[in-house]
Design goal:
Strand 13 (about 315-320) and strand 14 (about 325) form a beta hairpin. It contains twelve helices and 18 strands. Strands 12-11-17-18 form a four-stranded antiparallel β-sheet, with no helix packed on it. A three-stranded antiparallel β-sheet has the order 9-10-16, with no helix packed on it. Helix 4 (about 55-70) packs across helix 5. With about 400 residues, it is an alpha+beta fold. Bound molecules: heme C (HEC) (5 copies).
Length: about 400
């Protein structure tokens, strides 16, 4: 057991990122409100702002589960996940002696516990995560992500999309990853997510089919005329700028699912061919494991429903001995059932005798039945079925 702990803590402390302390003036989003209120309000609704143990039930339950299964302290697991979920945390690893302190219940006042429970990280991925990055090291190994892939600026400088910005509150610096090369910023974290067993269960970077649009075009919306700051800086007037929204709307925003995929139905003799195509440049589902697409098929005779069938497209994860588990604890994953980027998947169903028409409804769900039950998730959001599209054809 001791040896195991030594190995585990050694792995945790390898490749630790350099921490740069953030002055309290810039640590939290309320410090930006006076001059960037609309942006702060949009970001508050985003999933980025919920990326913390206290604020996302699924994240919390996953951390608790990993801690139990790996027999590591809760704080150690939180620090591992912080690499991408809370990258401005002030500690980047734990030591063997810390695990022993936890076992003896002597860790309460430790620097590690203070860092993990600090108010400065409870906003998750906030303004000073993205806007305080100096460099993104795309030359580092592709498994190196989050805080280990970036170098921070000095506290008080904001990296932004404008070459001519000036603010009385903070210094500003232009960065290409805030403008023409912003995919690079998103891929700091949205790539190469792997389990504690080293299984890469999702990788948006490897599946990405870059077209004309960038991540920000779809998840922050188009650039429209507005203002970057509400502070009147041009002769008593607010400066006009082309700006995007900070909602980072994605899978948790149900209206985003409408028409995200297309369904086509064709009858071929005694079969119906269901073709699901994905016009987006990344797979769907993607980004995290155990997401799910549901195909509901209804055979009808006029208005009368004859037969229903449900097909679940999801990936199942197993640990040692083939037992079902969550993505982050998995040794193995079943076949990838996602619809590939700019591609399609085709399913063949036999006709039902006497059926005059067939209707197909396509839904998305954040967490499949298996993982919801393993983690005992309570919030209704995880099981909610968001309608993507429906299609109906007459049968000959
Ligand atoms: C996940 C990364 C991320 C987070 C978190 C984030 N921003 Fe941004 N922000 C961006 C990107 C990318 C742009 C550039 C958008 C573009 O292409 O014009 C941007 C642009 C801006 C701009 C320029 C005007 C505009 O809207 O385009 C301001 C000001 C700004 N952000 C402030 C903030 C504040 C304040 C917060 C916290 C409430 C915040 N940002 C959180 C990524 C982020
Ligand atoms: C006292 C007002 C004020 C406060 C407070 C303030 N800013 Fe700004 N900020 C500005 C002004 C003014 C600009 C320049 C706007 C322009 O040029 O259109 C600006 C520009 C920016 C930009 C764009 C920089 C660029 O080079 O493109 C970012 C990013 C930004 N602020 C982030 C923040 C964050 C994060 C906070 C909170 C920690 C914050 N600001 C607090 C006034 C403020
Ligand atoms: C510092 C790491 C990091 C960076 C940089 C980052 N993200 Fe994220 N993003 C996350 C994490 C972690 C989550 C999930 C948080 C949660 O659900 O608790 C997330 C969630 C999202 C979601 C919501 C997905 C859903 O399932 O609803 C979208 C959309 C998104 N990010 C887009 C972007 C875009 C676009 C960029 C680049 C401008 C970006 N992110 C940059 C880490 C990051
Ligand atoms: C052409 C538009 C488009 C582009 C470009 C795009 N996405 Fe998406 N993305 C979507 C749509 C549509 C969905 C499905 C509905 C939703 O979740 O918003 C989605 C879903 C997501 C999800 C949730 C996935 C899931 O299955 O749970 C994440 C995370 C995400 N995108 C991140 C990104 C990142 C990071 C990039 C850039 C590397 C990117 N997207 C580029 C349109 C786009
Ligand atoms: C390589 C960066 C990275 C690391 C490290 C990481 N995550 Fe994530 N995680 C993400 C991103 C990006 C998303 C958003 C993807 C999406 O929503 O499609 C996410 C989403 C999640 C979600 C889904 C949240 C939701 O609301 O749907 C859970 C749960 C989660 N992560 C758990 C963990 C746990 C537990 C750890 C540590 C053992 C961890 N993550 C480590 C990048 C990371």
């Amino acid at each position: 057991m001791r040896i195991l702990l030594v190995i585990i803590t050694l792995i945790v402390s390898l490749g630790a990122a350099k921490v740069v302390k953030i002055d309290e003036k810039f640590q939290t989003s309320d410090k930006c409100q006076a001059c960037h209120m609309p942006i702060v309000e949009e970001w508050e609704k985003s999933q980025h702002s919920k990326s913390h143990y206290e604020n996302d039930e699924y994240f919390r339950a996953s951390i608790d589960y990993i801690s139990k299964k790996t027999r590591k302290s809760l704080s150690s697991v939180k620090i591992e996940c912080a690499t991408c979920h809370n990258p401005r945390i002030s500690v980047t690893g734990t030591s063997e002696s810390y695990e022993i302190m936890v076992a003896l219940n002597l860790d309460k006042g430790s620097a590690i516990n203070k860092a993990v429970n600090s108010d400065s990280i409870n906003e998750g991925i906030n303004c000073v995560v993205c806007h305080n990055i100096d460099k993104i090291h795309t030359d580092r190994d592709e498994s190196v992500r989050g805080m280990n892939r970036v170098t921070w600026m000095k506290s008080g400088i904001m990296a932004g999309p404008y070459k001519d910005a000036n603010s009385p509150y903070h210094k500003t610096q232009y960065r290409d990853f805030m403008n023409e090369d912003s995919d690079k910023l998103c891929f700091v974290c949205h790539a190469n997510d792997k389990s504690v067993k080293g299984l890469v269960f999702t990788n948006m970077l490897s599946e990405y089919k870059k077209g004309k649009k960038s991540c920000v075009d779809c998840h922050m919306g188009p650039r429209v005329e507005g203002a970057a700051s509400t502070l009147p800086i041009d002769d008593g007037k607010v400066r006009k700028r082309d700006v995007r929204k900070h909602g980072f709307e994605g899978a948790h925003v149900f209206s985003m699912w409408k028409d995200a995929l297309d369904v086509n139905l064709v009858q071929k003799k005694n079969n119906v061919i269901i073709e699901i195509s994905n016009p987006q440049p990344h797979n769907i589902p993607s980004g995290f494991g155990a997401r799910e697409l549901i195909i509901d098929v209804t055979y009808k005779d006029g208005a009368k429903e004859m037969k229903n069938k449900r097909i679940s497209l999801t990936t199942h994860y197993t640990r040692r001995g083939g037992k079902p588990t969550i993505p982050h604890a998995a040794e193995k994953a079943s076949e990838d059932m996602s619809i590939p980027a700019n591609g399609k998947k085709v399913f063949k169903l036999p006709n039902v005798k006497g059926a005059k028409s067939i209707k197909v409804e396509l839904y998305y769900r954040l967490v499949n039945d298996e993982v919801r039950s393993i983690l005992k998730l309570k919030d209704k959001i995880w099981a909610k079925e968001s309608l993507i599209t429906t299609k109906e054809i007459r049968l000959k």
